Model the fold of this input.
Amino acid sequence: MSGRPLDSTSEPPRIVERPGAPDRDVLRERGRELGIHPLLVRLMYTRGVANAIEQRELFEARLGGLRQPDAMAGFTAALDLLERAIESGIRVGVFGDYDVDGVTTAAILTTYLEALGLEVVSRVAHREQGYGFTVMDADAFVDAGVELVITGDVGTSDIDAIRRLREHGVRSIVIDHHQVPKVSPPADAFINPHQSSCAFAFKGLCSAGVAFYLCAGLRSRLKAKAQARLPPDPREWLDLVAVATICDMMPLRAENRALVRAGLRRLSDRARPGFASLLAAAGVESDVNIDEEVVGFKLGPRLNAPGRMGAAEPALRLLRSRTATEAEPLAEQIEMLNARRRHHTEEATSQALVLLQGDAELAARAGLVVASEAWLPGIVGIVAARLAERYGRPAVVLAIDPAEALARGSVRGVPGVDVRAALEACGSIIDRFGGHREAAGLTLRSTRIGELALAFAAAIAAQPRSVDGEFDREVVDCALPLRVVDMQMCETLDALGPYGIEFEAPRFWAEGLRVETVRVLKERHLLLTLSQAQARREAIAFDQAHHGLAIGDEVGCIFVPRLERFRGESRVRLQIDRLWRSRAKC
Done:
């Protein structure tokens, strides 16, 4: 998305085509060399992949091209601990965060170690108990008699909790990918690609990706000992890795590209009962191939829903399910929790907009902070993302707990801004924070929210912007007439997927489109039929009902071509990112 406000006018934007594309002859020649359509070659060039070897590697993205993980700091120490745990048969504890990456990481570690014969006590974070791995969680593992604890997607900043384990003689492995503070956790093995001592070249793994590598390394060790029973193949867990990588918005380059592509194939096979049941509950037909769109808009919100509404345990239980009989009622429970989550999110978003619109200084603030006692801590991240998108500025949304006088919340950013660095600049005000450039979480005393609002805005304003922040600027790949947008083109574009962070989905633009039919869905979205010359295409424009279009209107749009399946049949539909009224015919 462009970072423009959603309530902007219908004026045509300033279209900027992605730079870096060579001339047509070069595209055709490289396409022949690689055996792919020249349009795909253009997309790779304009996304910074110009070398023929790198283009082939990106297009094929094979697991055989993964680099060995031995260079990861803490990796060998973690394998030593796990190997000794298997030899001695000790009880192991696994702890994951309450979001998709944390829950899938916990599911990978728990089910893989159980497949190796270990007894595993697994837990996931509860949002109401605060962010991360707490001292209370550490004590629970001690009481459960575990001798080794592995944390997933948490632990890097949880110094006190890791220290508590050590005080009780419990060893620990921290698996994480959040930014590393000045003081590292006192774990027996600390695996985080962002620590300065980590020589593994790719830094974009999520925690589930690191967990996959750890399981693969453990399997290699056990195979080398020539055991009678072959250890399970970690590739069977790649569906979990793909979901975590996409939902945690990790870069779809290098290792992640191969992991996600293989994981999506396994997801499409619906081999895991938990995913099969959740996809069915979400209304995804059984013959639909699962891509990054289905993961991001169907699976991700549902897996996050339990943790947003309270305990994330149902999501972990779903992913650990071994049969459809076990998984189906959990999927139904999660579907109900997701419906509640949507209701609370809509209410909180509306209330946040009212609060911001009443702020006389809104226009001058580089970063936004809004808080309420009425909001659930679990939905503030979604609200923050919506506000950041609407206003084109980073947004902090806080849920206030009046009993504890604490405010817990999330911050979401916009391109070119490091929100974690902004929170670090507010460190004297905030009690606790953690996260990435694009998204983070924080806790502070509710009496200091006013101070945070000023300090956060100042910290954002002090950062140099690395991208053009103009609201009317839209970056696209090229103009595309409707007549060439057909099923074959959509299949061609799908062949270059998955698309996402650092490998953005193709965006095209067209002008002079006539509205043939228009229908408003849920008072927010537009369902359209558009025509240009002799071509007609169906289209959907989410959150753009404010345009008030009528049959016969002439519009321009920026769109992504999609191939969808409905009741067993495939159809082409344009997903419109931005819509405006045309000034001149195409």
